[in-house]
Amino acid sequence: MELRQLIYLMAIVEHQTMHAASEALLISQPALSRSLSNLEDELGLQLFDREKKRLVLNENGEMVLPYIKRILKDVHKLEKYLAEYQKNRHRIEIASLAPAPLWGLTYLYHQHYPEMPLNQTLLSDTQALLDGLEKHLYTLIILNHKLSLAHYQCQPLFKETLHIAVQSDHPLAAKTSITFQELDGTHFLTLKGIGYWEKIHQYMPHSRF
Questions:
Q1: How far is CA 154 from each of CA 149, 150, 158, rounded to the nearest angstrom?
Q2: Domain ranges of the chain
Q3: Which of 25, 50, 99, 147 is 20 to 30 Å apart from 163, CA to CA?
Q4: Tell me: domain 3-88, CATH 3.30.565.10, correct?
Q5: pLDDT per residue over 80-131, tens digit each?
Q6: How many CB atoms sit inside 10 A of residue 102's CB?
Q7: Which residues belong to any copy of the HTH lysR-type domain (predicted)?
């Protein structure tokens, strides 16, 4: 039994005539007839009755039809899975809490693997990153803390420090460090899409960004 025979049989069921089914399949009518005949011989069953120039499933055909549908459905699912597998096999998905790590990694990645696509996602939610990694949506993720889970490998990448820049005559210019409380109420010009660092907004509710 061949998969092609099952596909041909389903076309006959749908169109109910050899002529219409062969046209839909883009094959000759004799070739379709031979395929059906060979399938019936293999099964040892006649599957169709002729009724007013139409081919209609008989009792045997109705019995085997659910199995054939299930086989074709499973084949379709397998084809979709393999297509997605091949697609993902040659693509890297990186998700990060902050944009800066992506800048350096993107450059290095394209230097070493210029032909392989790289997709990037910036998120501010740690749990969303972990869920995406667990569901294989991401090849790797970048967090702001060490991940202590046995089934994942976690390595430190680098330390990132937040800085503010002010004019030299600004009252804050003489300070070597500063708290969010002292900054609260100051207006800031920041980059858009800074991921995790957007959380600083909640520490300075009276500031404008």
A1: 9, 10, 13
A2: 3-88, 92-142, 161-209
A3: 147
A4: no
A5: 887 777 666 667 888 988 888 888 888 888 888 887 788 888 888 888 988 9
A6: 19
A7: 1-58
